[in-house]
Amino acid sequence: MENKQKDSHACTMEKIISLCKRRGFVYQASEIYGGQAGAWDYGPLGVDFKRNIQNAWWHYMIQLHDDVVGLDSAIFQHHTTWKASGHVDHFSDPMVDCLECNARHRADKMIEDFSAANPDKAPSKPVDTMSHDEMKVFIDENINCPTCGSKNRKYTAVREFNLMFKTYQGPISDDSHLIYLRPETCQGIFTDFKSIVQSNRMKIPFGVAQVGKSFRNEIIFKNFIFRTCEFEQMEMEYFCKPGTEDETFSRWRKERWAFYLKYGIPENQLKWHHHDKLAHYAKDAYDITYNFPIGFEEIEGIHSRTDFDLSQHQTYSKKDMSYIDQEDGNNRYIPYVVETSAGLNRNFLMFLCEAYEEENVGTDGNEDYRTVLHLHPRLSPITVAVLPLMKKDGLSEKAKEIQHLLKEDFVTDFDTSGTVGKRYRRQDEVGTPFCVTVDYDTIQENKDDGSKNELFNTVTVRFRDSMKQERISIDELVPFIQKAIRDYKPVERKDR
Predict the structure, then answer these.
(1) Residue 35 has pLDDT above 80, yes or no
(2) What is the pLDDT of residues 45-99, one digit of tens each?
(3) Distance (Å, whole) CA 91 – CA 432
(4) Of 80, 143, 269, 436, which residue is most buried, by most CB within 10 angstroms?
(5) Percentage of residues in the chain with pLDDT exceeding 70?
(6) What's the pLDDT tens digit per position in 328-345?
């Protein structure tokens, strides 16, 4: 897909990738060996940024909701888990091969990308409702191979490709030792449902949230960290009484939309996508999509899953998965489930894309562009950078003292390389919301004429978004920054 903007200073995927590698957010996995397809390493800034997103999600889902608890289930589940869930038989994507270059493609994504570039030639029905034969006919008639560009359009039949990684536990490679890397985190929540109810005395309705790694053997990998074989999900399964699932579904759609607004995603950059073709277990399903440089793509799904999952596990395990509702005359039923499932890696990419700006800060008609990440302070990998004006005359030592003062409450950086202006620009580029500058007024109790220096024991706090500066007493520095974080308002971008 084409970049949505043509402005030379607009955010593009290429700029994001370059920034990530240059500044230590994301590296290609196994790069010294030529790289590993679909795998990425998160560098010093990237791992903190990702953890902050996870913590923000956890705070929103767990800390702010009395009816949601946490879980960390195992990656390795009993292989029957995936038979019960339907993944063994149904977890697949439509695949087609080019017969000229042997490249493999996801048939549905080929059609979606073609339709985005050629809306007047889009198929008459949604892609997710097309049969394999209909996909094949459309591809043969319209789409040149994305890899080799052949106009002959010689492709294999569309067939299903199972996305699960399988291996064997122990020294024997047979079906009794078969095990899968989990393709989603939620099944651990379902298998632990009864234990959670009993151990924590949970009452319907309630939710269980977790963050964890999942693995999918994707047909293709593209768009940087957007689609990978190893990724992290932030999922919540909310259990409710049958008959209340529509109200619950509506509630969590509103809640999850509000989360993104809270952390600085403008409403006009988000869009709902309703699933025209539902999974076999689903009553209703929506995706929250974000306007990436490549177009609107999914960042989170909200699904009404009925009682399918618990019923399936009851059938396969022979264990009673019903809930006894003491507040409803001990009525026994299998709870219905509403799921919210967000991709942590996709959230990572979304927040970077949204925060990225090449801002002209020149004056008097002059151009002077700075690259800045307008990240919410709770998400920024570095909260405060401490910058001594000079390395000499005790300034660096005093700055180190201040950094140690701040470390207990914030993630800090200490930078002495280059001019203060250049250091500001480096911190802007990685999204640091506050810079603290230590100068001679900080350390000199008296002025040169012997009079009292009113600025003694103060520092300059510089704000990333506005570039404004404020003089603050060192004793007040921690609560000042804490209040600035609490009161932070996302930037209203001129380019939005």
Answers:
(1) yes
(2) 999 999 999 999 999 999 999 999 999 999 999 999 999 999 988 888 899 999 9
(3) 41
(4) 436
(5) 98
(6) 999 999 999 999 999 999
Q: Which of 183, 272, 191, 180 is nearest to 232 (CA)?
A: 183
Tokens of 357: 């700006």
Q: What's phi and psi for 452, nearest 5 deg?
A: -65, 135
Q: Distance between CA atoms of 97 and 103, rounded to whole angstroms?
A: 6
- 303 is written with which tokens? 């699904």
Chain mean pLDDT for the chain: 94
**CA atoms of 454 and 187, how far apart (whole Å):** 63
User: Hey, what domains does the chain have and what are their CATH numbers?
Assistant: 13-90+164-352 (3.30.930.10), 95-161 (no CATH), 382-486 (3.40.50.800)
pLDDT at 5 over 60: no
pTM confidence score? 0.88
